[in-house]
């Protein structure tokens, strides 16, 4: 699952969430719901 890598990236650069949202919309929604 890319969720772990995506989570690490967003922790380092929260701004990257915008880009990741386009690549992994479901993963991003999961992270946003988790937060």
Describe the model.
- Helix 2 packs across helix 3.
- The chain has one domain.
- It is built from three helices and no strands.
- The protein has 35 residues and is mainly α.
- The model has no long low-confidence stretch (mean pLDDT 65).
Q: Termini, distance in Å?
A: 18 Å
Mean pLDDT: 65
* Percentage of β-strand residues: under 5%
Fraction of residues in H or I helices: over 70%
Structural class: mainly alpha
Structural descriptors:
single chain, 35 residues, mainly alpha, 3 helices, globular, FAS-associated factor 1
What's the short story on this structure?
The chain has one domain.
Please describe the topology of this protein.
Elements: H1 3-12, H2 17-23, H3 25-34
Helix pairs in contact: 2-3
